[in-house]
Amino acid sequence: MAERGWALVTGCSSGIGRALVAELRAAGWGVVATARRVETLADLADGDDLKRLALDVTSETSLAQAVQACEGFRLTALVNNAGYGQMGPLELLRPDEMRVQFETNVVGLHATTRAFLPLIRKNALPREGRIVHVGSVLGRLSIPMAGAYNASKHAVTALGETLRLEIGDSIPVILVEPGAIKTQFRATLKQAWGDLPERSQGTPYEAAILRYAQKREDFAAQHGLSAEACAHRIVRAMASRRPPRRVVVGMDSLLGQMAYRFLPISLVEYVLRRNYR
């Protein structure tokens, strides 16, 4: 019987990543929990099935150090969860803000996959390995005020689908598409958008930006799933003998994708414009 498999999860300081640590351990995995600041993982319960590790997915040095630290584990899975949402109207978004968004959500995800894939190939039994990309419903459709984030998650969708075509016969690739998740959205959003409210003053976007964070948080509170429920769905997919290609998480994700597929796009755009004003 093969020794326990380990899964490395990026972005474990909060949200889905933090919930995944508990769900994976409960399912019998060893977990390499990572975050840019390892001290944010200090309150995770100790055990021989947990390793805390500092990892910045945008740093080649940090990735190399993390790979070296994992060489003593039978690493068989990678969950690319790290990322953030750069919100704001495209007309006001600076190119450097777009670059940083892609550097974390897209380039960092790709770099992490490249870094750890050789270890998974080395350790995993046939069809045992798992690569998970945590994308978003916004990788299939777009909403106003989130152009950079929409674009980054569309890219994550393309990376996941392409990787599955290239390696899926030996290592299943699972693309997760959550809708709204109950997290500290407004606090994270305001850190990411910097001086955007000041930039928007006197523009047609000023009022919409002030409403945006509250609207998104209210929607998540009313309709969103908990991070734990999302993590449970991910771990269940990872445990399947024939892992699904896509995991659509949340009724809003399912209905939103159905609307884009089956309703006239003019109607969908009208509803979105009216909703976000």
Radius of gyration: 19 Å
Q: Sketch the major β-sheet.
A: 7 strands, parallel
Strand content: 5-15%
- Computed structural class: alpha/beta
Order of helices and strands: EHEEHEHEHEEHHHEHEHH
Compute the separation of the termini in Å.
59 Å
Summarize the structure.
The protein has 277 residues and is of the alpha/beta class. 51% of the residues lie in helices and 14% in strands. The chain has one domain: 3-Layer(aba) Sandwich (Rossmann fold).
Question: Care to describe what's here?
Answer:
The protein has about 280 residues and is α/β, with parallel strands linked by helices. It has a single domain, classed as 3-Layer(aba) Sandwich (Rossmann fold). It has ten helices and nine strands. The chain has helices at about 15-25, 60-70, 95-125, 145-165, 185-195, 195-200, 205-225, 225-240, 250-260, 265-275, and strands at about 5-10, 30-35, 50-55, 75-80, 130-135, 175-180, 180, 225, 245-250. The strands form two sheets. Strands 3-2-1-4-5-6-9 form a seven-stranded parallel β-sheet, with helices on both faces. Strand 5, helix 4 (about 145-165) and strand 6 (about 175-180) form a beta-alpha-beta unit. Helix 2 runs parallel beside helix 3 (about 95-125). It is globular. The N and C termini lie far apart (about 60 Å). The model has no long low-confidence stretch (mean pLDDT about 90).
